Amino acid sequence: MDYKDILDEFRMSLPKECQWWPNFFYHFTDVHNAASIIESGWIYSRARVDEENIMVNDNASRVVIETTHSDNTMYGRLYFRPMTPTQYHNEGFKPEGVRKQDINASCPMPIFFLLSVEKTMEITDVKFAERGISGERQNIKEGETEFAKLNFHKIYHDGPYNAQTEWDIKEYRQSEVICKNGFPVPQTIRGIVCRSNAERETLLYLLKKYSLRLYETYKKMIIYKPSHRMFYNNGIFIKEVSIVDGLISMELNSAHLRFKNNNTEVLFEVKMEVTYLGENNQRLYFAMGNAKMNYCVVENMAMRLEDILECTKVLVKVMFDEAVMYENEIVISDDIMW
What we know:
The chain has 14 helices and 17 strands. With 338 residues, the chain is an alpha+beta fold. It folds into two domains: 3-224, no CATH class; 238-337, Immunoglobulin-like, CATH 2.60.40. A four-stranded mixed sheet has the order 1-4-9-10.
């Protein structure tokens, strides 16, 4: 059997909502890194992106990186599945005080690249590591025979488990596919999944800034599918952005899902920049608002737009502390004005 057949044989034993997971391999990164990856056409190793200084947002924990064997940073890395332990700790914006109570990792706007199993495993020198290569782990294997021996029941395990008797489940969920040369995106990509519609809008906007050609090539692959179980919805993020009656409103994720460590008040700064653009894309004027918000409870934000009748669109940028959490051009229609 080939690699896809091996995974197909296993998939029906998974819970129904997870049976599609073995269709792909997964690369987890921040939305700003995603635009850079699409532009370069490669998912590179950490060593390569550090050397060339092409990582826009470093979402890894320094604690984990500093304990990872230097040879392991030479690999481009994909996960077998979404919903990994690393993703739980990294996902979403958290104010510095909250991050430091955990492993101090930060991926404010996470996305997943979905890569074809067949095309990925055709790449020269591709290998895989049961339980992953973070820290000192070096259990690297290759070939269909070894692939068939992997413990897929633990790799794709979903839901709670007994940490005393199934202590290794957490490590198995970290299992990876790796390649020293990295992974070519155009040959392997099957989709790019965002956590919210607002984050999808941001990625599309960033990609359009990079290249209209790449935007036209990839825009249909960039999706938001809340029915796909891929994200923990951890941290705080923007779900939807709308303009109604001259008011720009932002719906945030549910406060009870955020990693808090029993805090009841953690303040962070919200900055909203609005550039009003005319019919020929000329800048008419600029406005900025800022406020302190409580990370533990806030679920909606809004800002009044002034003189909206004079412009055809607005460029909106939102920051939580220093992290950009939304960026997009919004066309001003008659529905918005009235």
